[in-house]
Write a structure and sequence with these properties.
The structure is a single chain. This protein is an all-alpha fold. The chain contains 1 helix and no strands. It is elongated. Its EC number is 4.2.1.47. Keywords: Lyase. This is GDP-mannose 4,6-dehydratase.
């Protein structure tokens, strides 16, 4: 088993994904869509 990410890269990727999801949700809300909150 060989590690592909170190912790810093993993956290960076996770934050980038979360930021994109937030931007997408804001875009949809601005367009009048009602979003439901699904929490893991």
């Amino acid at each position: 088993w060989v590690r592909e990410y170190d912790l810093k890269e993993l956290v960076k990727d996770m934050l980038e994904y979360d930021l994109k999801e937030c931007q997408k949700n804001l875009y949809l809300q601005d367009g009048g869509y009602i979003l439901r909150n699904f929490y893991e």
